[in-house]
User: Which sequence fits this backbone?
């Protein structure tokens, strides 16, 4: 669970490379692109431009380098030539990258073209909820503090937090201990220590928190068909607080 200074330096490299993937995506016009075309663009960028490995490809038998989750898809959307992104959609792109033996994991929900006010609000609040959780990270804090902050912000805005999926420790493996719930009570859960690395990745729904898995065995959708959004960063506990390893150039902590 706790990484050495040398391991953290390598994780920092992976995180910075993954941030560059999202900065590349920020420059694309997603409307009219299929999710498979986005997948292929990301795979080429990771392998050729960054000389890294897309860590999701082959993990648990998954054949692609990213998850593409549109509108009511909560997570684990499978790239397809038939799934074309349209004006007004929101789409979460969840990507992992491995370099020098260490993995970074991040996701971002994109608003494509003219998005309805309700969708814009959901995306904004979900991003805010992630940062509320990140700001709780420091030595001596507990994982329950992270989850409670996320849940409080989501509920205050009339939304629900998906409980079926959570953040996770990360390093040499994509999924390590601990599990990072996005709900909970302050003062409970594992105590955070300097050198711990994990993801914070809340999935926030407009309606019910209940979800179902499609027949493909991967795609998770809201039970009521309402929208879902997600944001994710890989973070490290520092001596005085938190470092966001996958922070992008257009972001600042908080």
Assistant:
């Amino acid at each position: 669970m706790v990484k050495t200074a040398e391991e953290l330096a390598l994780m920092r490299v992976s995180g910075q490379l993954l941030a560059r993937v999202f900065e590349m995506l920020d420059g694309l016009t997603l409307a009219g692109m299929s999710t498979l075309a986005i997948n292929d663009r990301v795979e080429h960028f990771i392998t050729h431009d960054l000389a890294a490995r897309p860590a999701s490809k082959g993990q648990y038998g998954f054949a692609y380098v990213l998850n593409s989750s549109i509108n009511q898809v909560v997570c684990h959307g499978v790239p397809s030539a038939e799934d074309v992104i349209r004006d007004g959609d929101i789409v979460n792109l969840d990507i992992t990258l491995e370099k020098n033996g260490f993995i970074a994991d991040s996701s971002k929900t994109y608003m494509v073209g003219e998005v309805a006010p309700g969708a814009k609000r959901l995306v904004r609040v979900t991003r805010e909820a992630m940062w509320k959780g990140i700001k709780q990270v420091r030595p001596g804090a507990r994982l329950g503090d992270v989850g409670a902050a996320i849940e409080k912000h989501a509920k205050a805005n009339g939304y629900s937090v998906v409980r079926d999926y959570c953040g996770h420790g990360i390093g040499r493996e994509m999924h390590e201990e601990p599990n990072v719930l996005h709900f909970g009570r302050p003062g409970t859960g594992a105590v955070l220590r300097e050198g711990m690395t994990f993801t914070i990745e809340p999935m926030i729904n407009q309606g019910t928190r209940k979800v179902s898995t499609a027949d493909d065995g991967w795609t998770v959708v809201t039970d009521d068909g309402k929208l879902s959004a997600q944001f994710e960063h890989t973070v490290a506990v520092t001596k005085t607080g938190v470092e966001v390893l996958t922070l992008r150039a257009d972001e600042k902590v908080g």
Residues 5-26 form the longest helix (22 residues). Helices lie at 5-26, 35-49, 117-134, 143-156. The two ends are 25 Å apart (CA to CA).
